[in-house]
What does this fold into?
Amino acid sequence: MMKNFIEELQWRGMLHDSMPTTEEHLLESMRSAYVGFDPTSDSLHIGNLVPIMLLAHFQRCGHKPIALVGGATGMIGDPSGKSAERNLLDEKTLRHNQEAIKAQLSHFLDFTSNADNAAVLVNNYDWMKDFSFLEFIRDVGKHITVNYMMAKDSVKNRIGSESKEGMSFTEFTYQLVQGYDFLHLYQNNNASIQMGGSDQWGNITTGTELIRRIGGGKGYAITCPLITKSDGSKFGKSEGGNVWLDAKRTSPYKFYQYWLNASDEDAEKYIKIFTFLDKETIDALIAEHNETPHLRLLQKKIGEEVTLLVHGKEAYENAIKASSILFGKSTASDLKSLDEQTFLDVFDGVPQATVSTTDIEEGLDMIGALAAKTNFLNSNGEARRALKENAISVNKEKVKEDFTISAADLIANKYVLLQRGKKNYFLLKITD
It folds into this structure.
């Protein structure tokens, strides 16, 4: 059943611009549209989630999504928003990255069904690798003037007086290669629409121009806004850099925390963009959140929806469990159920000291654990006073002075969590 894709984007705040008559074109019949993804890494990050959601909503509205992995363009580098060229990758690395990206996209797109609008993954390296330079400048380059290419913002910004790096011929031709992708997919995959971020408008319209001049047809462009955060910092970045979709690069706990830490203003925007919840549900959630903003209902719901999509139910539940460890009532068994990376993420920045395996095997007394061997507390006397005050916990459970730490207390076979009061944490790391 066809749904109005443009209307869906509008109420979600995901439409920046579209060519005239695009909406009518989409309502006539099932259409194919593509979005390009940079394959210079074997994981996408949450900055890619907006174009991924564009394709996902496109498919849910009854149309056919095409995900293009830019194996050829990835060897050149898109100048849009860049101030310098990127490193070029070899074919083996690009192929590996392509498969990893497809696996991530499959969480959002249906590639496997027999439906007419099942998603397709293509790599522009497959049609560009045998294209000779002479053929390209003869068959493609002659249709686009240098004046037309120079007028693009992505080019003007790189060759203007303020640019120190300048721009190589390789990157100057990028828009021609991307434009040819659109022409190729128009001719071979019936793709009549290219979608992307608002910074891609210039590259997309070069494609529609090639379709008009070479293909004798009409291509359409749809762009979404570039996501910004209300505090002015860059969306998709944490203190540690990019927030990745790959659990090995960004743990599900940190991934969930990113959404949980969104401001109220951003959360109201994100719930529409990054979830598949319908308008009625979202409006009700926003109203409920505004009545009790301290409960952070919007942030929790976004974190739930996106973490489930990207990492699955088990990872989401572990992220919830890990989140409650710092602030809720948790036990030693809760701590021991965490994998090592999640445990370290939860207690990132907590001071630590090392003790030997022999210390643990022989049984580490609490005075040694708190002061003599670790300097968590300033002196043995302070350690005794804290223990008498019932202020010390080992792995979230209160202990007395007669308690000894043994191998049975180890988390991930190498850590023990000490705690004084509610918020004063310390890690013991066991070494050989």
Summary: The first strand starts at residue 17 and ends at 18. The mean pLDDT is 91.
